[in-house]
């Protein structure tokens, strides 16, 4: 993830604005107000913490590049990954409304964050109902994704779970991409997929082999690449209704 000295801070926020526009209407003035909001840049390596459970949140970070995840841990140290965050995602909009973090948030890959002071974001939102609505919609869509994940773990078999997750990631990446998304590398290891899907790494390995045989994915070493999305959709019986994309963002 190299530095681009010619890229202004306003340009860096383009992916965040595209994410909001993927589900909400914002005027040109609203978009400019977001682009002009002061923030600092922060870079983290894989597994570094962005937020810890119990923290008092004073900032609102937005993911500009890389992938991050939310996770909860049980008393015996077991981990459940409860959300995947992709470029363009606000990582903790809920802290604009509730003070204490109830989860851990970590970098999955090397990440770059735009870190806004919470007070600055609150000042932005107060006189701008369209931005306030976009934030609420973003929070609601995250809840919708969480419900689908609960169904995925509770009622789909291993093959359906993994195919469904891969489809979801494809369409979420497509929402904020500037051009059509082709094959792309999936950032989770087999161990992390197991923590996300409620399976064992051995079971994940067997399931990936089935998807490989179907031509839906390719695997090189420990990295998984999404290939045939139509095959994944068929296997998962996938519907993207729960992602609540606007008509303008449909592909």
Automatic annotation (TrEMBL):
Instruction: Give coiled-coil spans as residue ranges.
Output: none
Q: Which Gene3D superfamilies match?
A: Jelly Rolls, Winged helix-like DNA-binding domain superfamily/Winged helix DNA-binding domain
- Keywords from the UniProt entry: DNA-binding, Transcription, Transcription regulation
Q: Where is the HTH crp-type domain?
A: 156-230
Residues annotated as transmembrane: none
Q: What SMART domains would the database entry show?
A: HTH_CRP
**An annotated Gene Ontology molecular function:** DNA binding
What InterPro entries has UniProt attached to this entry?
cNMP-bd_dom, cNMP-bd_dom_sf, Env_Response_Regulators, HTH_CRP, RmlC-like_jellyroll, WH-like_DNA-bd_sf, WH_DNA-bd_sf
What is the recorded name of this protein? cAMP-binding protein
Q: Which organism is it from?
A: Sphingopyxis granuli
């Amino acid at each position: 993830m190299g530095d681009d000295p010619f890229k202004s801070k306003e340009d860096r926020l383009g992916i965040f604005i595209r994410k909001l526009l993927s589900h909400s209407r914002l005027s040109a003035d609203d978009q400019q107000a977001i682009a002009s909001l002061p923030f600092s840049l922060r870079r983290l390596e894989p597994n570094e913490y962005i937020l810890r459970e119990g923290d008092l949140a004073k900032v609102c970070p937005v993911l500009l590049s890389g992938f991050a995840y939310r996770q909860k841990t049980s008393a015996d140290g077991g981990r459940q990954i409860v959300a995947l965050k992709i470029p363009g995602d606000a990582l903790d909009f809920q802290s604009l409304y509730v003070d204490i973090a109830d989860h851990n948030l970590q970098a999955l890959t090397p990440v770059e964050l735009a870190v806004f002071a919470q007070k600055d974001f609150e000042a932005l939102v107060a006189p701008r109902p369209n931005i306030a609505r976009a934030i609420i919609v973003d929070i609601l869509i995250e809840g919708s994704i969480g419900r689908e994940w609960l169904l995925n773990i509770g009622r789909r078999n291993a093959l359906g779970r993994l195919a469904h997750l891969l489809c979801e990631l494809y369409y979420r990446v497509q929402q904020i991409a500037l051009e059509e998304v082709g094959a792309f590398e999936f950032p989770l290891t087999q161990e992390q997929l197991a923590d996300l899907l409620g399976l064992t790494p051995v079971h994940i390995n067997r399931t990936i082999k089935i998807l490989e045989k179907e031509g839906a994915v390719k695997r090189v070493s420990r990295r998984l690449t999404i290939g045939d999305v139509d095959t994944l959709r068929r296997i998962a019986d996938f519907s993207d209704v729960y992602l609540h994309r606007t008509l303008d963002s449909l592909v």
